[in-house]
Design goal:
This protein is mainly α. 67% of the residues lie in helices and 0% in strands. The chain has one domain.
């Protein structure tokens, strides 16, 4: 058997389990669905940030957004989102 050290939280979980403090959920499918929904909503929250851009970059950003027919803030957000998805997928 392989031995390892548990941190404080892990030790608390093991102790609670050994004491029988865990309970079975009657409808685990509904519980999973609710927890998934809570997590999804937490991740959807947006926060405002300030970004400094050169005047030229801002003008080009606004022009591209106009070509796309969307507000420049939305266009900027989509660019950041696409970039981050590419970096985490590859």
């Amino acid at each position: 058997m392989k031995y390892f050290e548990l941190d404080k939280n892990e030790t608390e979980i093991v102790t609670a389990f050994e004491k029988g403090e865990f309970r079975h959920l009657k409808n685990i499918t509904n519980e999973k669905s609710a927890l998934h929904s809570y997590a999804e909503n937490a991740l959807k929250k947006t926060r405002s940030i300030n970004v400094r851009l050169s005047e030229g970059d801002l003008l080009r950003l606004k022009a591209k957004a106009m070509e796309e027919g969307i507000p420049y803030q939305t266009f900027f957000t989509s660019i950041v989102h696409k970039y981050l998805r590419q970096k985490t997928a590859g």
